[in-house]
Amino acid sequence: MNPDQIILALDVDRADEALAWARRLQSRVGTFKVGLQLYLGAGHEIMEGMRKLGVPVFLDLKFHDIPNTVAHAVAATSRWKPRFLTVHASGGREMMEAALGAAADETKVLAVTVLTSMDEKAATEVGWVAGVGPTVSGLSRLAREAGLAGVVCSPHEAKNERQAWGMGAEIVTPGVRPAGAVGHDQARSKTPAEAIKEGSSRIVVGRPVLQAPSPEAVLDQILSAHP
Question: Between these two residues, 133 and 177, which has the higher pLDDT value?
Fold first, then answer.
């Protein structure tokens, strides 16, 4: 595995803390994820800081609204030119097309399929009675038809998604935990090496790194792992 295949989730509250992590780990991490927690607390500050630092950003805001609203929301992020931006595939093809049309040229729009915290029971409870696998496949098909750059799914669906999308697409997998790490709220997880073997183009990891006594050692372990 190489550093560009690692996305580090900066799940912290303050921009100064997030930027300190980015400076510290940028030689081992290809992209840094800014999600709702950090963006809502320090959006302008963190995005401007990351721009000045010159590191790629995965802006993981998972937009999900009517097409017009999503288009304007995506357009508002274009000043930052994030490397990746997420929308929920369940918003529908028209919404995804609107997001793609409003994104910066440099930005790859990715469709979130089924959250990695959801298991079969949770999927059924929200009305996805076919189960996780078929639901991911159906949402993924809509994302391809909308022209998106790829999907966000769990490592358990990565193999099928790689076959469906082909080699050029982004198959980004959260729900990745190094061997021996605590699972937290991830219901469908695999190790980094397993995820890459299954077809992931990039893995997302956060708490196992940020909460480790030696974050560098955890990342080095991930980088040295073989599928």
Answer: 133
